[in-house]
Design a protein that fits this description.
Blueprint (H helix, E strand, L loop, with lengths): L1 E6 L4 E10 L2 E11 L6 H19 L3 E5 L7 H20 L4 E4 L1 H9 L6 H12 L8 H28 L4
Parallel strand pairs: 1-4, 4-5
Antiparallel strand pairs: 1-2, 2-3
Helix pairs in contact: 1-2, 3-5, 4-5
Length: 170
């Protein structure tokens, strides 16, 4: 399964593509889209959409895994993260690619075995899982790969279990 992981952010948006299945993963590409800091928000979102679209077209993922936005005391930060998330949703929807969400705790548990792992532990395990000499930098890049790994390893199983629990026709 080819998965594009997205660690959404308006200033820095991490993108990571892997080919994987439970217990195995290999990196295809990783990067960070940095939007122009002095530009107005609309221009920044447009730039992010263009870059996201280029990644989707170039790497043709079967699914896009996005970090679920969580409530925080910094409302402005949550809003810009939500805007970047919307760009990922829109870009994938235009191409008919499904989007799934994973919580930070779920991603940490999938990659490290602990939902309380810190960023350094996640980055180190991403490097180990993918056979990289060093952890991808900045952290947004490692987080995007962790999201992709999480979905490849757990996402398909979680979706099948949810379908069984919900039953047919729901």
């Amino acid at each position: 399964m080819r998965v594009l992981g997205v660690d959404p952010g308006l200033t820095r948006c991490g993108l990571g593509v892997i080919d994987g299945r439970p217990g195995r993963a290999s990196m295809v590409a990783v990067g960070v889209v940095r939007t122009p800091g002095g530009a107005d928000p609309g221009e920044r979102l447009l730039y992010l959409e263009q870059e996201m679209g280029a990644w989707l077209d170039r790497f043709a993922p079967e699914v896009v895994a996005v970090e679920r936005v969580f409530a925080d005391v910094n409302v402005a930060s949550v809003m810009t993260t939500a805007h970047a998330t919307a760009v990922a949703l829109l870009s994938a929807a235009r191409r008919g690619i499904p989007v799934v969400f994973h919580t930070p705790t779920e991603v940490k548990a999938a990659v490290t075995g602990s939902g309380r792992a810190d960023k350094a532990q996640v980055a180190a395990m991403v490097a180990r899982i993918l056979g990289l000499g060093a952890a991808p930098k900045p952290a947004d890049a490692a987080d995007a790969l962790a999201l992709a790994i999480c979905h490849a390893w757990r996402g398909a199983q979680t979706a099948r279990l949810a379908a069984l629990v919900e039953g047919p026709g729901r």
